[in-house]
Amino acid sequence: MRRNKGFTLVELVVVLIIIAILAAAVGPALLGYIDKAKENETLNNAKKMYLAAQSIIDQAHSDLVDPKTRVTADRMSEITLMDITDGSEPYKITYKTNSFDSTNPSKSMYIIERFTYDEGAYRAKYERSTGKWEVISLE
Fold first, then answer.
1. Which residues of 35-64 are buried (b: 16+ CB within 10 A; e: fewer)?
2. I want to staple 105 with a disulfide (CB 3.0 to 4.6 A). Which of 2, 3, 8, 76 is the partner?
3. What are the residue ranges in the chain where pLDDT is below 70?
């Protein structure tokens, strides 16, 4: 008698069923990690863009309040209370600045009050009043 050393069809089906059960249990967790990684990437990119935008505003303010030039409210309005939107896809940035002292433009500081950054399927939002970043899914 010759004996074949192989797996029977029933054994193979049982192993495939066990693998399918494990994949069903682990799959959602892995997908959750992928989504969380994408949210974190969007948040990190938004924070970088926020810092870059605030740096640009700070530099514009410094240029406008240069002691050699006369500061006027018209010149300060170039950066006060402005909404800027860059609608180029897949990134979209919107922010709004505000000054602390509207009566004396040369002593004003300009900071970003609201900042939103859309990247693909996620939006990162920052509100100065709460001081918190929030990432939401757009899908």
1. eeebbeebbeebeebbeebbeebeeebeeb
2. 76
3. 1-4, 63-91, 99-108
Spatial neighbors of 111 by CB under 8 A, at least 6 apart, are 54, 57, 97, 98, 128
3-class SS of residue 33: helix
Per-residue pLDDT tens digits for 70-95:
555 555 555 554 555 555 666 677 77
User: Across the strands, what pairs with 135?
Assistant: 124
Distances in Å between the alpha carbon of 98 and those of 28, 77, 93, 138? 43, 10, 17, 27
Q: Provide the 8-state DSSP code for 28.
A: H
Question: pTM to 2 decimals?
Answer: 0.63
Distance CA 76, CA 25 (A): 59
How many CA atoms lie within 13 Å of 6's alpha carbon, on the beta-carbon side?
A: 6
